[in-house]
Write a structure and sequence with these properties.
With 262 residues, the protein is an alpha+beta fold. The chain has a single domain, classed as Lipoprotein localisation LolA/LolB/LppX (outer membrane lipoprotein receptor (LolB), chain A), CATH 2.50.20. The protein contains 4 helices and 14 strands. It has a 14-stranded mixed beta sheet, with helices on one face.
């Protein structure tokens, strides 16, 4: 056997041995059945009636882009107040909705916009494809949004995640939730309309730093194309909030403007 063939044989043996020594896909201690997985998710998630969080908020969309420090307070299922400040601590906007009306204060303009809680008016803070109750639940990682057991499920060994699916009455997928196989934390959410088109998605990360809620969330909508990023520095669960605590301030001389009108 010449040296060239010997070298080739040794290389092939090394590659074969190396392939055999590759670690197997990352598996959980035991793959859970759907009913047990849902039970574990329900037991692990926090029971949130209200919350108050400080952090950073960024909105990217074709019509508006802003980013700054944020203070968000919510009372589930339908009341939220969000304040966003620029890097110098100056107020960019104050947003409020109780599910019936929307108030948006732009302090620099000294204008307070008010109107009904329609998807278009809520879009000052809530992505248009989401309802207000959905948004509040998503902000604290309360998943799945759908009740009951999933229609389909699978364990994706390559990513080490469970995929759970719920369907509309017409059989089209309504919701997909991906759950980390070891930590049993929801890491991704997708919501679809009855036509099968994606309405919005949410990605979760940075678990463990804030007790039982994710530290970072990225919301995305494909139409209109928009992205909302939230980074929580601190989170208080179930503080004694009342609706009056979330009211938008009214600076002296503020001009009230109906939402949707200039």
């Amino acid at each position: 056997m010449n040296l060239l063939r010997l070298a080739g044989l040794l290389l092939a043996l090394c590659l074969w041995a190396g392939c055999r020594s590759l670690p197997p896909p990352r598996l959980p201690a035991a793959v859970l059945a759907p009913a047990e997985l849902i039970s574990r998710l329900q037991a692990e998630k926090p029971q949130v009636q209200a919350f108050a969080a400080r952090g950073r908020l960024t909105i990217l969309s074709p019509t508006r882009n802003y980013s700054g420090s944020s203070f968000i307070k919510g009372i589930l299922p339908t009341t939220v107040r969000a304040d966003v400040n620029d890097p110098l601590g100056r107020s960019l906007l104050n947003f409020y909705s109780n599910g019936q009306e929307v108030q948006v204060l732009f302090p620099k303009e000294n204008k307070l916009y008010r109107g009904e809680a329609t998807p278009g008016n809520l879009a000052a803070f809530i992505p248009t494809a989401m309802t207000l109750p959905q948004m509040l639940r998503l902000m604290v990682g309360d998943l799945p949004l759908s009740p009951g057991q999933p229609s389909n499920w699978a364990y994706e060994a390559e990513g080490g995640r469970y995929r759970l699916e719920w369907t509309h009455p017409n059989g089209v997928v309504k919701e997909k939730v991906w759950v980390d196989g070891r930590e049993l934390k929801p890491v991704k959410e997708e919501w679809f309309g009855p036509d099968g088109k994606l309405r919005f998605s949410a990605e979760y990360s940075d678990f463990g730093r804030l007790a039982r809620v994710p530290g970072q969330i990225i919301f995305k909508t494909p139409f209109p194309e928009a992205e909302l990023r939230i980074f929580y520095k601190e989170m208080s669960l179930n503080p004694p909030l009342q609706d009056a605590d979330l009211a938008v301030p009214r600076p002296p001389g503020v001009e009230e403007v109906p939402l949707g009108k200039k």
